[in-house]
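Minutes, project check-in
Item: structure for the 500-residue chain
Input as provided by the requester:
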Amino acid sequence: MKVIEINNVTQTFRKGLSQKTILKNINFTIDSGEFVWLKGDGGAGKTTLLSQICGLMTPSSGEIKLMGLDPKDANAKLYVGVVLQETQVPKNMKVRELLELLRSYSPNPLPLSNEEILKMVNLKKPEILDSEMAPLAGSEKQRLYLALALIGNPKLLILDEPTRNLDAESHKVFWEQIKLCHEQGVTILMTTQYQNDSEKLNELATRIVKLHPFSEIPAEGQLLEESTLENREIELESSTNKDEEISTIAPVTPRNLLDIFKKQFEFEVTQLRRTPTFLLGTLSIVGFVPLLKLQPGFQPGQVTIDQLIYLCGIILFTIAIERLGKRVAIERSEGWLKLLKTTSLPPVVYIAAKITSLLIVCAVAIFSVFILGYWQLGIHASLGLYLSVFLGLIIGITPFAILGLELGYLLHPKSADSILSLSLFIIPFACGVPLPFKPELMQDLVSLSPFYHYKELVLSIAQSNSDPRVILHLLWLIWAFGFFGLSAVWVYKRDRAIVK
């Protein structure tokens, strides 16, 4: 079986009115069991080509198949392990948690303990498992990235400069592990700029191909077969077995998505707990509630439940759009989402876990507002009313949390902060706050806004009226949930700004 197929792939990048071509008419295939060394000078486009194979980048033209599937399909990466040239995992997460997370993505992970997997990559200190990423040295991080690539028991390894920052002993262990993987029939595609890797690659590689820079393309083409080492002994039986296994499992491999969701959700919640500045900054907005007592002539009970709902709306939109969007943009710029997208984690599961963990923060914020409203402002209402409003606020904010996530993917990380902050000034008008100019025209446009229908739905719940338009408000929010959800998955798959 051909585990990688590249047909007439061209890649150009646009900057303003000009464009730069990196790859042109690349044709290339890799069969199961091969060890391919992809050579090329710096800037030739090796990382760009590997990014396309991993589904991180869409070619400008041409087609790529990974395990017979679109590289952006999570199922295409069920049995693929990747070491990227530039990436970063969350600094506040422990090594054990990262290993368990990536283990959960695989339908057939390595039957080894976390300690044994770390020993495979020469991470033998017992305290490493419970260490956070921040204090790890560069060599230790690089070895961990290899462990994360191997933990899913891959049939294909894609290695982009995997030996960078490795010390002499770790370099030796790395090549021992790669040799073992090759002997077991694992297909390997590797690129490196380090001269001390050449000897091992000349010894192990079954094929050597060279990618020439676009400005120096020879007449034969940009990607040329430098040598095919047919006389090298390959364990054909192992390779055949792997070939048959891949051909039957690549298209559809049942996985318990609920288990993956639970592990991803647990990971997201742990990240939030270990980011006190994010939580304190987010929940500090609740502290504005008692300030309503400072208005002239304030009397207990003067502030209504409707006013409290408006305040909750401001807080929820801040959390769901501005704070979540910035968080996603930061994870993109650091490279964590780049690594996640090389795994078989389904986009829907990732998005669901991210949104669910954020809704917990929203729930805490609303609960705190209600407590302060009752205690400080004297807003007395039945428990049933508070509960109904609470559910309306939480359920209704969900599509806008997905929108915030989508904006975090869509916006360039450098501009996300200012654009997301600016959006908070636009949302009130989208909810129906009167404008000083053309109010009738704006009112007609606002009636088409899901923000407006969210506000009207929650106010209808608070006022306990039987407004027949409640069903209309609900339908608009359901439509927004579906539209934002589908577009968020699409943006997640096509995200190209994270590629260096």
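Outcome recorded: Residues 305-334 form the longest helix (30 residues).
No further action items on this chain.
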